[in-house]
Amino acid sequence: MADPRFFRRAGPFRLRELAELAGARLSEGADPEAEISDVAPLETAGRGDISFLDNRRYLAAFGESRAGACLVAPDVVDRAPKGMALLITDKPYRAYALIAGHLYPAPEVREDRHASAVIDPSAVVGPDCHIGPGVVIGAAAELDAGCHIGANAVIGEGVSVGAGTWIGPNVSLSHCIIGRRCQIHAGVCVGNRGFGFAMDPEGHVDVPQLGRVIVEDGVEIGANSSIDRGSGPDTVIGAGSKIDNQVQIGHNVQLGRGCVLIAQSGIAGSTKLEDYVAVAAQAGVAGHLTIGKGAQLGAQCGVMRDVPAGASVVGSPAMPVRDFFRIVSGWQRQLKTKDKPDE
Amino acid sequence: MADPRFFRRAGPFRLRELAELAGARLSEGADPEAEISDVAPLETAGRGDISFLDNRRYLAAFGESRAGACLVAPDVVDRAPKGMALLITDKPYRAYALIAGHLYPAPEVREDRHASAVIDPSAVVGPDCHIGPGVVIGAAAELDAGCHIGANAVIGEGVSVGAGTWIGPNVSLSHCIIGRRCQIHAGVCVGNRGFGFAMDPEGHVDVPQLGRVIVEDGVEIGANSSIDRGSGPDTVIGAGSKIDNQVQIGHNVQLGRGCVLIAQSGIAGSTKLEDYVAVAAQAGVAGHLTIGKGAQLGAQCGVMRDVPAGASVVGSPAMPVRDFFRIVSGWQRQLKTKDKPDE
Amino acid sequence: MADPRFFRRAGPFRLRELAELAGARLSEGADPEAEISDVAPLETAGRGDISFLDNRRYLAAFGESRAGACLVAPDVVDRAPKGMALLITDKPYRAYALIAGHLYPAPEVREDRHASAVIDPSAVVGPDCHIGPGVVIGAAAELDAGCHIGANAVIGEGVSVGAGTWIGPNVSLSHCIIGRRCQIHAGVCVGNRGFGFAMDPEGHVDVPQLGRVIVEDGVEIGANSSIDRGSGPDTVIGAGSKIDNQVQIGHNVQLGRGCVLIAQSGIAGSTKLEDYVAVAAQAGVAGHLTIGKGAQLGAQCGVMRDVPAGASVVGSPAMPVRDFFRIVSGWQRQLKTKDKPDE
Predict the structure, then answer these.
(1) Rounded to the nearest 5 degrees, what angle is found at the Cα of C157, between the Cα atoms of C151 and C161?
(2) Where are the alpha helices (DSSP H) in chain A?
(3) Could you check whether the bond before residue C32 is cis, i.e. omega within 30 degrees of 0?
(4) ipTM given for this complex
(5) Which of the 8 DSSP states describes residue B230?
(6) In this structure, are B311 and B184 located in the same domain?
(7) Burial class of C314 by CB neighbour count within 10 A (0 to 12, 13 to 18, 19+)
(8) Mean pLDDT along residues A187-213
(9) What is the pLDDT of residues B313-331, one digit of tens each?
């Protein structure tokens, strides 16, 4: 069970409630009225817990698990231990996410405006917002209903934040329009001026950065990430995109819907990622490129050219995954060859 | 036109004013009294707008542009559409930067000391400074005239900040001397102790870091970047250097004048970059090296040795650009060769 | 001498006191009552200063140094200039760290609760704590004796902090248990939700992250680093580990004792580093791996497999150091070969 200092648990819930929530089918013999009070891994789960199996590597643990219930795909049903109730679904991990989120719901936003918050008189704060201690909200900023603004966050002049968005402590927002139901974690900086200037040996001259950052609905941005505003066009983060910690997004970048950017990756200015592009950790994408829908960019890769939709690339410079590993195999072969005569 | 929630526009200005500002020559037939009220890209600019052409790739857009005026180099004058006023200069982009900065001047610093700011009695705050809500200024700190200190920034004990410097929200400064007209964006950390300790299996022992960070005039530091103080010598950022977001600079590093460090690059301890070195995104430079004047370090490169002045390197380990791409071509050739027999 | 605006010096101390502190032996003829008032490098040290020699590259500087005293290993004693007192030890740099820390002790924690700090009534603040301006401490949080909490730091609900821990400005802590005598530098974010969700084209679904971050005693975390909380298990940072700036640690990661992670490195979820693993700058380690005791991961390497104890790897994908440099030599040879026929 999660540490009650940090997490509040709801429930217990009956199996039939959880099956319905997850869109899963109960196995034969499972008691729909059985109570489930927690989630747990296969190894440690007990009678009142629900677990999940999403990867056949864990079939052995599944077979020995004492979980009262388990979310599984149809093809492993016959591997279940006796007496375990199964919730059968094509997407066990997604179903687990829904059920875990039901047992441990996000804390409700407590309506509050802390006395120490500094809210410009021209700012508009919607109903049911939580404005933490030390928060600063600039002139003409607008928060829609049910926003949570963490302690010491700074919401700049004119910024607007959509309903139900959660903003962590020490976040800095400026020159941006944030959608609904976003999560912006601690230390994030959105809307700083893009890195635009005319290089000149007599002194670099700043080019005013006159665009904004548009963050669409349902976006998550991880701790200490930074997203610069556009130079004239806007920087756009598409709906439902997931951005991990310490990710850097340059001016004029456009992310489509549902993109996933893992920790410490970076996207240089004016590059466009179409929908559902996945960028692995520490990858870098050069500026002014287009990365096609659903493309996958491997960890630490360095993308210097457009990537077609659906492609998977890796390496620096980035190339198709298959080519990369063939090249690496070539290196390994050379090592072996040389081992013989030289040593 | 830029979103008025975030940007204030000055003007309109007459063509002759802008030409003079930019050091450009008006083309024959251009009306020096014509009014320009905004900047815009070639594709969308209209009669009252000024645009620029800096790259011959955009000659077609230039030929079809309806911009009232355009900044161009002398060699493309004859490609202009009829009726477009030209401002002719050898540095169109630099001229554009100056004009855009004139039309959208940086907001004036509004003299203010917010009541919620905590300013130590021994600190000295010069005239015309803006001290935002929640700012904390430590003992014996000194701010010269016209500084802007963003909300919730923390200026440590003894820190000094030069005239006209702009500091963003949630910035943390300690053990540093900041020059004039610098821009330090949100979330930046300057002056933390360098990563110095005696490694020891019985327990690493910290080595006191007794130097400072010296940031010279006109330096820009991007969001969430960090610059550690020296171990004894100082860490120095040369005048006019431009540092992007999430850049890491270790203790005792010395940057010359006008260096450019792009996002997520890192410079390890005691390395020296001479004037005008450019470091591309995610590049890393090992410690105790010297990078010569004007050298260019490519994206994601890993520099393990000194780089001579003017050289361009890439790869990890870094090598001359030409060598790197020849090696990559070799890999590609091997792929093609092997495709034949094996498959 | 270090800038008195930022550093307070103790002393002077007698040589015998310093020798005892460092566990060093005084050379013959050295005056145990001689006073030492400062540390300095070999080149600039004078009569009242103590220096150290830890690397034979600096033997020449040692031979010419005017330092009053020097920490040295036994094998270089005969290279000392006449009249220099030697403190002989097998670990000169460690001894130097101890002595420098004695001459420049960390500032004492000044007991204070600034009036602007917002401390929840249910929080417990131990004796002799310094709570800076603008600090926010959440419900049921607990600080043990002698903690320093920097200005505008945010200590979340339920967080506990061990005795003598130093927390910098603008730090954000949540869902974590912090040990004793830790140093957490400016801008650090600990305890944000791990990057866990079920990817789905209909919309990624968050998986609640129900673990914590456990930071054991004596850990240092550099500026703007981020450590996510576990998904169910905890994320654990072993005692005495040293983490540099802008390091990213994913959910469920376990670091053993005394690990060293240099700037901009990243460890993906559920990976385990055993004791004393060293991770160089910008290195990345994939998820679900085990890195054996004392392994060394080179700068910018990309670790995709387990690494055995004591191994040194580099490259992306990572391989033994020796293999990597043989491969690089192979590339260099190819360049030379091709230079002849082609050009």
Answers:
(1) 60
(2) 15-22, 59-64, 92-103, 321-342
(3) no
(4) 0.96
(5) P
(6) yes
(7) buried
(8) 96
(9) 999 999 999 999 999 998 8
Q: Choose the mutation target among C135, C242, C264 for the interface with B, i.e. most B CBs under 10 Å.
A: C264
User: Are residues C176 and C213 both part of a single domain?
Assistant: yes
> Are A175 and A309 part of one and the same domain?
yes
Q: What are the residues facing C198 on neighbouring strands?
A: C205
Q: What mean pLDDT do residues B178-203 have?
A: 96
Q: Pairing mode, if any, of strands B290-291 and B296-297?
A: unpaired
Tens of pLDDT, residue by residue over C232-263, are 999 999 999 999 999 999 999 999 999 999 99
Structure-derived torsion over alpha carbons of residues A67, A73, A78, A83, reported in degrees to the nearest 10: 20
Residue-level length of chain B: 343
- Which residues of B are identified as catalytic? 251
Report how far residue A196's alpha carbon sits from residue B96's, in angstroms, rounded to the nearest whole number: 12
Q: How many other CB atoms are found less than 10 A from the CB of residue C8?
A: 11
Range of weakest confidence among A319-328, A333-342, C109-118: A333-342
Asked if B118 contacts C135 with a C-beta cutoff of 8 angstroms, the reply is no
Q: Position C191: which residue type? A: G
How confident is residue A342, by pLDDT bands cut at 50, 70 and 90? very low
Q: pLDDT digits over B16-73, tens only?
A: 999 999 999 999 999 999 999 999 999 999 999 999 999 999 999 999 999 999 999 9
CA-based diameter of chain A, in Å? 80
DSSP one-letter code for B20: H
> Mind giving me the DSSP string for C130-141?
EE-TT-EE-TT-
Looking at every residue in chain A, the average pLDDT score rounds to 96
Give the Cα separation of C181 and C165 in Å (integer): 4
Closest CA to C228 of C263, C192, C278: C192
Identify the CATH number of the domain in which residue A85 sits.
3.40.1390.10
How many beta carbons lie within 10 A of that of residue B32, not counting itself?
13
Q: Are residues B3 and A228, on separate chains, in Cβ contact within 8 Å? A: no
Distance (Å) from the C-alpha of residue A185 to the closest C-alpha of chain B? 13
Total domains, chain B: 2
How far off is chain C from A145, nearest CA to CA, in Å?
A: 22
Pairing of strands A112-113, A130-131: parallel
The token pair at B79 is 């490609």
Residue B147 has pLDDT above 90, yes or no: yes
CB contact under 8 A, A245 and C136: no
Asked if C203's CB is within 8 angstroms of A258's CB, the reply is: yes
The nearest CA of chain A is from the CA of C190 a distance in Å of: 9
Name chain C contacts of A185, Cβ cutoff 8 Å: 189, 192-193
| Co-location of B97 and B185 in the same domain | no
Q: Given this model, what pLDDT does residue A341 score? A: 46
Q: Which of A6, A262, A276 is opposite residue C201, by nearest beta carbon?
A: A276
Asked if residue A70 and residue A183 are part of one domain, the reply reads: no
- Which pLDDT score, from 0 to 100, does residue C343 have? 37
Residues ≥6 apart with Cβ < 8 Å to C12: C35, C36, C37, C48
What does the alpha-carbon distance between residue B86 and residue B289 come to, in Å, rounded to a whole number? 47
pLDDT(C266) > 60: yes
B210, C39: Cβ pair inside 8 Å? Answer: yes
Full residue range of the structural domain in which residue C48 is found: 13-103
The angle subtended at Cα A256 by Cα A284 and Cα A259, nearest 5°, is: 55
Q: Are C224 and B189 in contact (CB under 8 A)?
A: yes
B1 in any annotated domain = no
